Description:
Helix content is 50%, strand content 15%.
Amino acid sequence: MRLVLLGPPGVGKGTQAVKLSMHFGVPHISTGDMFREALAKKTPLGLLAKEYLDSGKLVPNDITIGLVRDRLENPDCAEGFILDGFPRDVAQAEALEKLLWSLGVSLDAAIYICAGSDVVVRRISGRRVCEACGATYHVSFNPPPEDGKCPKCGGRIYQRGDDTEETVRERLRVYKDLTEPVVDYYKGLGILKTVDGEKDADEVLDIIISMV
Ligand code: ADP
Ligand code: ADP
Ligand code: ZN
């Protein structure tokens, strides 16, 4: 199964990607997670990405596309993948088509998860993440334990530095300007599926599975 998940920041792409990855037995590939991991390890990639993550702007395409190319060429992607947070503009979507063509495969669907901006803002502002395993929690909808330790791995649960009001505003602007056109791109290819992301997470999962 080869899927890309589209939708505004905070709509639940990562949450669904984890579930879909388990369901289909294919890797979850999140460019945001890859950048945050690189940053935590202070690798050259991480240090380069830092200013973009902090400001909510897109990391330049030559870097991001190269990163995704290397990842998709890994043998563990032979049977498929769930791409989350990529492509984020039309140039990335075109590069992905070219890359998949060169690998002799194609996407099964592009899943567009949508929700109103009030829902998205509420989800982002309550989001908490495990530093060690990346598991995602929400202060109201999926509360982390009071001791602040991840039930899955014991890691520290924290709030992402870019989940602040000012950066979220910029990320939503970038989404509208650059990422929303990607929805039309996949509509044009005839593989777009739209799902109401305001429902609860397991319901959204069932709908996605029934669509692909
Ligand atoms: P994205 O990857 O699109 O930025 P996340 O999957 O990280 O979004 O979700 C953002 C926040 O919303 C997280 O705190 C997550 O726990 C919560 N969340 C995700 N899906 C739902 C849902 N269907 N209902 C309520 N909260 C959700
Ligand atoms: P969210 O889904 O909450 O917006 P992500 O974890 O997907 O957050 O992305 C966090 C940040 O990582 C983005 O604001 C951007 O700086 C960078 N990033 C992630 N994916 C991409 C991408 N495909 N192209 C460019 N930058 C990206
Ligand atoms: Zn954890």
